[in-house]
């Protein structure tokens, strides 16, 4: 099943406007994404989409960089609350799945740019905080019958420290393997972002095909977008790009388009490419 992220449409800040456009285009499966302004979530009840929920949704009233590994007690508390609010929303709108980003060893002011090099925790400490937070979220989700999945981080050149990844958790398989020594895959899965995989594999020098294969049995959902293999660009799919070539492996899990800054006709073209890839 192909879902369309609400982040795909050009100028997506007003999520209700995005959903109205999707409704007109007869799009049925929607992932509620991470780039929207605060709004009254009760307004979602007017729509009849098949929803799944991702990361910063519902958007908080006060700005927050979600980080379940934060050393800042306020940010950590708010991040856990946001995850639980998202799980509550899943129950209200009949979404079977909530997915969220892996954590960071520092609290960034903004995503998509170089993180601050101050107040960086050791990875071991950040991992412990993250594991404790995720344990709390897993219990909350299980009690409400909602599946959850973690999205491995993307590592780009600007966030390398002496050619190493010191800032972003769960970007390579070694850390993911450690994660599954603690948690059962039936309790929490992976949201495998193929765009992230293409970029991270280049900068951390690992085999992207092997990474996909290792994650296959743990993957609850997929994000797909195209890029140049160096930057997380969220470009449109092509029939021959690497990300499209991997979709057939995941035809039994939700696949969400995260190709951004598009109009409806471009979104529909991407949907057609993705659907063709899995049939």
TrEMBL record:
Keyword field: Endonuclease, Hydrolase, Nuclease
The protein's Enzyme Commission number: 3.1.21.2
Entry-linked SUPFAM superfamilies: Xylose isomerase-like
Top-level taxon: Archaea
Domain Xylose isomerase-like TIM barrel, first and last residues per copy: 42-237
A GO molecular-function descriptor: deoxyribonuclease IV (phage-T4-induced) activity
Gene3D superfamilies according to UniProt: Divalent-metal-dependent TIM barrel enzymes (3.20.20.150)
Pfam families cross-referenced by the UniProt entry: AP_endonuc_2
Protein name: Putative endonuclease 4 protein
Originating organism: Marine Group I thaumarchaeote SCGC AAA799-P11
């Amino acid at each position: 099943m192909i879902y369309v992220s609400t982040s795909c449409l050009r100028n997506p800040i007003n999520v209700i406007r995005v959903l109205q456009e999707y409704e007109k285009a007869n799009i049925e499966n929607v992932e509620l994404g991470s780039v929207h302004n605060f709004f009254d979530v009760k307004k979602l009840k007017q729509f009849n989409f098949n929803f799944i929920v991702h990361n910063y949704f519902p958007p908080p009233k006060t700005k927050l960089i979600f980080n379940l590994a934060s050393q800042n007690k306020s940010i950590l508390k708010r991040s856990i609350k946001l995850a639980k609010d998202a799980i509550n929303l899943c129950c209200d709108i009949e979404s079977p799945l909530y997915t969220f980003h892996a954590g960071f060893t520092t609290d960034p002011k903004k995503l998509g740019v170089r993180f601050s090099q101050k107040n960086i925790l050791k990875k071991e400490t950040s991992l412990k905080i993250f594991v404790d937070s995720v344990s709390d979220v897993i219990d909350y989700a299980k009690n409400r019958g909602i599946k959850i999945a973690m999205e491995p981080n993307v590592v780009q050149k600007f966030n390398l420290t002496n050619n190493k990844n010191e800032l972003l958790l769960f970007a390579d398989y070694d850390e993911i393997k450690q994660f599954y020594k603690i948690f059962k895959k039936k309790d929490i899965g992976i949201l495998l972002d193929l765009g992230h995989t293409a970029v991270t594999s280049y900068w951390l020098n690992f085999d992207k095909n092997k990474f996909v294969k290792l994650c296959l049995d743990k993957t609850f959902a997929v994000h797909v977008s195209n890029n140049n293999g160096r930057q997380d660009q969220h470009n449109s799919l092509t029939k021959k790009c690497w990300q499209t070539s991997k979709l057939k492996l995941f035809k039994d899990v939700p696949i969400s388009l995260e190709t951004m800054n598009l109009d409806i006709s471009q979104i529909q073209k991407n949907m057609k490419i993705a659907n063709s890839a899995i049939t």
